[in-house]
């Protein structure tokens, strides 16, 4: 789950990271009041869950109250990369003298949280990584020790930060890693961590914030779960989550209904292997019972890209005949107009196959055979 900039910055602040004390508003008049309360100039920032808002015109400086109101009005009527702007953050404008990138991510190869920093902040870090990878400094964080002071200092030195800012930087870097762990994040990022001029001296301030929380850990963080922005998800993803299905939309034409995440991944690979394109990843977790299969089937069939549905089911604790009955019941309820191929194996397979064959489903003995049949049907429909 992605958090908005203002939410991420609130969480960062709890871990000692200095952030501007901004105000989130939903209309232009409130933006004017916020600007008056904060003092001019201010920045008006679109709160949408995509990167590159600055480049898209979603971050603007206002020098007067009229301008703050006008810009807020304009930004609130925008859509950025397809997402409507429903809120803007009004922050006191900073006098920026330098921009650093600082982020904590999971490095799967290292099996560690890695802290990344670069003096080339502000811009897309992906661009820096592609063009000048030497400008990115990385250190792995030990899960038991966290980020010790000496490592954070090494990073400050490596990005060429002047000595007088080391202690501020160390506090911020350690705070970021702490926040990453405390909220079960998969990403925590400050870009830019800016050197700003105020009262005649320079200090570090987190001007932007981004956090992605691991959905599987949200049960531990009801406060964060409540922060979810419904715009983040598509209709299908929302329904899938409500039905407790693991669903990811893809851009092919073969709708996949599978039990078990591993088998679902393997199914995508098999389809790809035979030259087909899956329309989704879908794991009907926890025993493929009729109501769940029906919910999953409805989600697949609501997707106009889907030209054929492929069931790939392993009956273990939930037996094949039970699953087959679930599938048949779901089909009777929904009456799909696309062809369906089913491969079902495991406990009580013969009984399962008999039930499926009686329901006008195309059956297959192996996943490979099922995938090839589904691909042929998808081609015929195209
Ligand atoms: P993003 O484009 O979505 O990453 O949004 P950011 O919050 O990072 O803002 C983009 C850019 O706007 C920053 O890199 C800064 O250069 C600029 N910016 C953001 N806040 C301020 C501010 O308070 N004052 C000034 N002068 N520029 C700002
Ligand atoms: Mn940014």
Provide a short characterization of the protein structure.
The chain is α+β, with helices and mostly antiparallel strands and 382 residues long. Helices cover 37% and strands 27% of the residues. The longest helix has 17 residues, at 166-182.
Features:
382 residues, alpha+beta, Dna Ligase, domain 1, D-amino Acid Aminotransferase, Chain A, domain 1, Rossmann fold, seven-stranded antiparallel beta sheet, four-stranded antiparallel beta sheet, 13 helices, 19 strands, binds guanosine-5'-diphosphate, binds manganese (II) ion
How large is the radius of gyration? Answer: 26 Å
Helix and strand content put the structural class at: alpha+beta
Low-confidence stretches: none
Q: How far is it from the N-terminal to the C-terminal residue, by CA?
A: 35 Å
Which fold name corresponds to the CATH topology of the largest domain? Rossmann fold
Bound molecules: guanosine-5'-diphosphate, manganese (II) ion
Rounded mean pLDDT score:
94
The biggest sheet amounts to: 7 strands, antiparallel
- Helical coverage, percent range: 25-40%
Number of structurally distinct domains: 3
Please tell me what the overall shape is: elongated
CATH architecture of the largest domain: 3-Layer(aba) Sandwich
The strand count comes to 19
Name of the CATH first level of the largest domain: Alpha Beta
